[in-house]
Design brief:
Two copies of one chain form a homodimer. Chain A has helices at residues 13-20, 24-31, 39-52, 58-64, 85-102, 114-125, 143-150, 173-186, 202-217, 234-247, 259-271, 289-293, 305-321, and strands at 70-76, 105-111, 131-135, 154-157, 168-171, 192-196, 227-229, 253-256, 281-285, 299-302, 329-332, 335-337. Chain A is an alpha/beta fold. Chain A folds into three domains: 13-56, 434 Repressor (Amino-terminal Domain), CATH 1.10.260.40; 70-171 and 306-333, Response regulator (Rossmann fold), CATH 3.40.50.2300; 173-302, Response regulator (Rossmann fold), CATH 3.40.50.2300. In chain A, the strands form two sheets. A six-stranded parallel sheet of chain A has the order 2-1-3-4-5-11, with helices on both faces. In chain A, helix 1 packs across helix 2, helix 1 packs across helix 3 and helix 5 packs across helix 13 (305-321). Chain A is elongated and about 85 Å long. At the A-B interface, helix 4, helix 5, strand 2, helix 6 and helix 12 of A face helix 4, helix 5, strand 2, helix 6 and helix 12 of B. The first copy, chain A, binds a DNA duplex through helix 1, helix 2 and helix 4.
DNA sequence: GCGGGCGGTGGGAGCGCTCCCACACCGCCA
DNA sequence: TGGCGGTGTGGGAGCGCTCCCACCGCCCGC
């Protein structure tokens, strides 16, 4: 049964109106939750909608009204895949959960090349989405500002700098570094090193700041030889660990600014015959799935990634409805997950 | 400058037509690549488009025409997160790459609850996407058939059974199991066990078949005590390995049908004092990021995940344009990645 | 008792496209 | 010379909504 003759088969708002014995306008008002509708009409329309199985046509809505009921989640992947991948999935999970309730569509846009970037910029300026969520933005990324200029609501995941002007949801990266080092020094480590992310990224600088605070708080001497810059990759972590071992053979604790780099460091430590955690305690950031698989399982500072996604979505929705004129500035706390590597 | 007074600011097809000195129809024809246009007109329109920075309005297009220029990628997450997460990201990556060239939008839909499932089914029947890509479908998932009934093109990632009737892109799971066992027996292992996925999933049964073929080909006796069913989770892998150790203390090789389960097995082996690979050789499937991090690094059978995503997208696009009446049935080869666990 | 509100309503006028019909205009044939 | 088909073209008629104006009652105040 059903789905037989008709071309498109879908009932329209007009048909709903006819069945409910009201005008088109009234149906539209009911659907959009306008307060100026009598209970009687509301009920009649509701029944007609149910009977007909009516679902509003999004294209028509977008064309007639202003909104599209869709937001874009943008993930730039220009360079090497900097962040551990599960990170993105968790963000997506959070965003998706929040959007589902608002009945908004999630458009996923991976930007790999400048061509794709250009295409996305066209997208933006064509106002084809009600807002954008930007993940993994670099310090010099112009996309957030472009969105602002075009009047498209935007929310970032992470800041580009301390003075970020676009709305953002970030995690407490200074606190992450700080708690990692506190944990290390709390276990009696005295020569605590750090492997940083790329220092043109604010997130990396923040974690380094946290490290420095922790070192100072423990009354240990600041020693720049204990700081090795890397790039969030495993190979980078490996290289940095080698440097560290060479410069400071007496290192007994390492705070790697990401789990992936910690994994790199771990393999170098193994090759060098240093036991973890006996000789060198090791701690990462992200609490990624891989952390648990490492040997020994890696102590790590967890970020509430899914929650960040959720908060970003919520902030964007608010910005779209214009509920809150103040751009969202949220910094979520991190949490130490202690395992056997420390 | 720019973006000053005008309400929407975007030029319309009509304005392009006026500027090019042609009719609306002609501009539309040029944009959609119709052959029935003179070179002169084509050129004039092209210039006008460039000068005005015209970008077609998607909503209007969708409303007037039949297509929406969007496809949905559906990821059911009802139960525990069965598959390792990076899997999905790689699929997304492949799909996205292929779609970008076709200038199609990627709608991501996570289905967690029956409510979200229902919403998506409404979506489908409202014809709001030109097609669907379905990932991680279970044997009894009705979604693919629903899509078929509604006449929405669909492509699956993996089959639900040997007789799958909906278009699909799968990897050679039998071959994966077979090559894993061949590798194990090739290294002289004689008591080779397997930890399977949930046997109501076709993928799990295929890998088990491959295992059995491998055992037989090596002239080893089939022994059901060497087969332990699990569920693709780490805890499941752990439980299965314990069983195996109890039933067959002389086991010297284990083929786990996923890296995650291999990780579980590995930790049980450690606790039991069995060395890997000396006492027991261990091999997984997926070649996930975690495999490399394990100690020792895990030998694994890699699936061409990103390529699968790409092929799925390509197949779907073809099905949408109606180019190929035959539903896509692709089975991609897997590849053994040898590391230190075997 | 009459005028002015206000809650509630109907329906016209688009939104920016695609589809398709109608109509030039060309060169060809009979 | 007239007719005929084939190109190339213009533009009307929607697609299914939202927005908004106009309108109908009713109740209130004076």
């Amino acid at each position: 049964m059903a789905v037989s003759g008709r071309q498109t088969g879908r009932p329209t708002l007009e048909e709903v109106a006819a069945r409910a014995g009201v005008g088109r306008g009234t149906v539209s008002r009911v659907i959009n939750g306008s307060p100026r509708v009598s209970d009687r009409a509301k009920e009649a329309v509701g029944r007609a909608i149910a009977e007909l199985g009516y679902v509003p046509n999004r294209a028509a809505r977008a064309l007639a009204g202003a909104r599209t009921d869709a937001i874009a989640l943008v993930i730039p992947e220009t360079e090497s895949r900097l962040f551990a991948e599960p990170y993105f999935l968790d963000i997506i999970r959070g965003v998706s959960a929040e959007l589902a309730d608002a009945d908004m569509q999630l458009l996923l846009t991976l930007i790999r090349s400048s061509k794709e970037r250009q295409r996305f910029e066209q997208y933006l300026s064509a106002q084809r989405v009600d807002g954008v969520l930007l993940v993994s933005v670099h310090g010099d990324d112009p996309l957030p500002d472009l969105a602002r200029e075009l009047g498209v609501p935007a929310v970032l995941n992470g800041r580009r700098s301390a003075g970020e002007r676009v709305a953002y949801v970030d995690s407490d990266n200074v606190g992450a570094g700080r708690s990692a080092v506190d944990h290390l020094t709390g276990r009696g480590r005295r020569r605590v090193a750090t492997i940083t992310g790329p220092l043109d990224m604010y997130v990396a600088r923040c974690r380094l700041d946290g490290y420095r605070q922790g070192v100072e708080a423990a009354g240990l001497p600041a020693d720049d030889r204990l700081v090795a810059a890397a790039d969030f990759t495993e190979e980078g972590g490996r290289r940095a660990m080698r440097e560290l071992l060479e410069r400071c053979p007496d290192v007994d604790g390492v705070f790697a600014a990401s789990d992936v780099m910690a994994a790199g460091a771990r393999s170098v430590l193994r090759e060098a015959g240093r036991r973890v955690p006996d000789d060198v305690a090791l701690i990462g950031v992200d609490d990624s799935a891989g952390a648990r698989l490492m040997d020994p399982p890696l102590t790590s500072v967890r970020q509430p990634i899914e929650e960040m996604g959720r908060r970003m979505a919520r902030a964007l929705l608010q910005e779209i409805t214009g509920a809150d004129p103040e751009p969202c500035r949220v910094v979520l706390p991190t949490e130490l997950v202690v395992r056997d590597s420390t």
